[in-house]
Amino acid sequence: MECKIKWTGVDGMTFLAETGSGHVVAMDGAPEGGGRNLAPRPMELMLAGAGGCTAYDVVLILKRGRHDVRGCEVSLAADRADTDPKVFTSIRFTYKVSGKGLKPEAVERAVHLSAEKYCSASIMLGKTAEITHEWEIVEV
């Protein structure tokens, strides 16, 4: 896996990340840090990456189990250390999984497998942060 980061210029703190798959993502800082607030902060993208990683896992696990999953939303709330390095100290993952006739044990299993085995991003963040998971099923 590769990624290339390029500062866009001398004014502001906007950076472009080009991923190995050829996609571009902008990052910026807060105005008080010299940024112009034009794009997400790098740590916000890290949190979003963990959410995307686990959502992908949960949907894939449920689909492979032939469960009628129709939607999956993951909300994340994180706390960071007060001093540098301002790592995540706690992250709360809240899943809202929708479908038809989804069994609680199947959703719980999918969340658990993602958290403990498959989601590299959240497992890596778990080295510095206390991570908790909550989930609910919405019948559609």
Automatic annotation (TrEMBL):
<dbReference type="InterPro" id="IPR015946">
    <property type="entry name" value="KH_dom-like_a/b"/>
</dbReference>
<dbReference type="InterPro" id="IPR036102">
    <property type="entry name" value="OsmC/Ohrsf"/>
</dbReference>
<protein>
    <submittedName>
        <fullName>OsmC family protein</fullName>
    </submittedName>
</protein>
<dbReference type="InterPro" id="IPR003718">
    <property type="entry name" value="OsmC/Ohr_fam"/>
</dbReference>
<dbReference type="Pfam" id="PF02566">
    <property type="entry name" value="OsmC"/>
</dbReference>
